[in-house]
Structures are given as C-alpha cells and as structure tokens.
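Section 4.2 – Deliverable D4.2 (structural model, holo form)

The reporting period included a commitment to supply a predicted holo structure for the target in complex with 1,3-dihydroxyacetonephosphate. Inputs used:
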Amino acid sequence: MSATGTSSKTSADEIYADLAVRLQRIVPDFELRYKAELAAEVNRLKIEKNALILGHNYMEAALFHSVADITGDSLGLCREAARTDRDRIVFCGVRFMAETAKILNPDRIVLLPSAVGGCSLAASIGAADVRRLKQRYPGVPVVVYVNTYAEVKAEADYCCTSSNAAAVIEAIGADTVLFLPDEYLAANVARETSRDIVVVGPADIDSAPSVFRSPTVIGWSGRCEVHEKFTVGDVQAARRQFPDVVILAHPECSPEVVEASDFSASTAQMSRYVRQSDAPHYLLLTECAMGDNVAAENPDKDMLRLCSLRCPHMNEITLEDTLEALKLDRYRIEVPEPIRSRARRSIDRMLAIG
Ligand code: 13P
Ligand code: SF4
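Output (structure tokens):
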C-alpha cells in the first residue's frame, strides 16, 4: 500500500527525476518528461482540493508511480477509502471500486476519472438475478465479489475480494454458500475451502440443483473478459521457453490455469510474492500494466510481458483523465439510499473478517 514520496511533489523536474529512476527501463524518456508535467499539475490540484488519489495495481506505470497516494488491490484500497478524512477521493480504478469508496464515504466527493469504467464481472449480474437466486436457495448465505455494483452488494450478506474470499466463506461457517458472480473465482475458492462447485446462469436458475449432498459453492456464470482468456497452453509454452519462470495467476483465471501456475492470489499478494522471492524470471497472468509496476519495484528481476490481453476498462483511466477529473470535479459517483446503507452492511461484514 505504498505511498511514494513522489505523490506529494509539485515540481515537474523533481517528479521526472523520481520517475526516471523507477521507470527508465520501462517508459521512454520523452514520455516520462511529458507525464511528469501532467503529474505535477495533478499533485498541485490534489493539495488545493484536499483530495486523496487511490491507484489500483492495474494503473499505467507513470500514473501509479507519480500521483497515487495509496496503491494496492481492491481490498487494500477499500480499507484506505474507509479511513480517509480528505474532502475528495479520486479513484484511479474502475466504477465498482469508486462506488465502494462512496458507499464507505457518503459525505465525501468521490470522483472516477472515466465516464464509464466498467467491468465484465460487474456487468454480468443484477439485483434481480440475486433476488431470484435467493428465492431458489432460501437461507443460503450470499457472498458477492467486490467486482459488482452497489445494488448487487445491497442484496448480499457479505462482500469479499480475491484477497479474502476463502476467509469470508470459512468465517460464515455454512456448508453451502452462493458466491457471485465470477464462476472461476468461485471454483478456485470452492477448491480452497474443500467444497463442490455448481455454476448457475440466468437461463437455468429455476432448473438448477437445489439439494447438495456435500458442502457446495453455488457460483454464477460471470467471467472476467481478461483472465478467462489465459490458457494452460500459455502456461506450458512459457515454461518451455523459460524453464525457471515463476508463474503467478490471478484467481479470476480458470481453475486449470491456476492449477498449472506456481502461485495464485490478489494483485497485491502477487506483488508481495515477487518482492519476497529470489527467482530470476516471473510471468503474471493478469492485466499487463501490473507487470510494469511490479518490474519497476523489482529492478533486479525479469518480468516477462504478456500484453496481448488488456483490461479495456482499467485502461480508460490515464493521468490526463485524472487531471480533468480534479479540474472539473468529474465524474462524481453517487449511490442512492437505501441501496448505499444495505450495500455497506455487506462491505462492513467483510472488513470485520479480514
Ligand atoms: P484485486 O482485488 O486482486 O486487485 O483484483 C481486482 C480485479 O479487478 C482483478 O481483475
Ligand atoms: Fe473487471 Fe477483469 Fe477488468 Fe478486473 S480485469 S476490472 S475483473 S474486466
């Protein structure tokens, strides 16, 4: 959850000097000079407007290393959002993340530097779907991934992130849980918590099995449009080419890909793993920008790039948009009552677990 000293600097020359040390092997020099000018303006406005910038691990390297006061995964940023006393939060991430910050801070201005900032998982399920599932499975606890919109969190008993999904399920202590909406994360968590997995989709809620002989995770047919595309073939090809590579997969990848990899966890946990290991080569099966950010923090380690797959939603957020967001106080995130307070319950229950 590092805040680099750079995020409080307002001189373009000083920011450039910091970026050049960290990113010279990753971003061309002329680009760094241009980004440093933008970052200086962002940091000046940030102070003037008493704003906090949260940067998800998927943000472009120049943004991540210059203006973000706090960086991290969904869980870490959610915790920081709950703690701040600044007037404004600018969330450099996607809409569901900014919404979570607003749910935790109804009286602060929360800005998303993009008009849309979507996510295929968040788009895969609505509140009506959850209500239908609750009718089909009365009394079964509902856990929703943080990658959902407020109205879905409002229908849930618990929220979770990739960092604490298994811990939340264990803490609930029920044999069977609804775990929505990522079918791959559900399957990975089912394996981790020794449960069976059943996946239900919008077309088969009424015909899906409703009696389970052993502890079961009931998942939903949502997928991350990025992580679903990594294959076991990709993992095998990387190992053939680089026999000593350590492969880290986000748990939104399929269970087969996770199984074929060396480590699987949230974005922050993957970063920590690389920091604490001494292998020479790493491959991250996740959004490519994170490879740049991890490479910058580990100059002695070689990060292989797999950048044909990008998250188009995370890539909407740039330093330019962050500057405009601060200048124009846009795009403001609003979450109406009573959805906000109902969604907050599920987030608070998660934060209480860990
Ligand atoms: P993390 O919670 O691991 O940061 O992941 C968020 C995400 O959207 C992954 O695709
Ligand atoms: Fe959503 Fe996947 Fe993008 Fe993460 S990488 S924000 S899960 S679409």
